[in-house]
Sequence to fold (136 residues):
Amino acid sequence: MKRCSKCILTERAVPIGSDGVCLYCRRDEGGIPYKGEKALVEIIERHRRGARERGASHDCIVSVSGGRDSIYALYAMVRKYKLKPLAFNYSQGFVEPIARENLENAVRILGVDLIRSSDNKAQHRYTRHNLMALSK
Fold:
């Protein structure tokens, strides 16, 4: 079975070209063009206005893991862009205790609502499937 030389997906998951690179990696080769912070602020303002017009209690959802990147993203949404985010955390069972502690501290300090979710049955099934696929 052929695997992508960049991301290791198999040909069962995605078409792989004759050069060994899958369709997803080929599509991402150009990257996302950087439009600057001004464009980001315009998008944020548009969504903030829409959320407030609808009477929503949150302006956006920020997915957080407890790692420094997602904690900074949450911090930036609250302190820099003045949004009221809803923090969402999906626990896949491989989270370090320090990440949990970072997340708890961040939502407490920033005054953000947090929703935690986990689907252990599905996670175990997917993990087992992925480990079996990688071992072949």
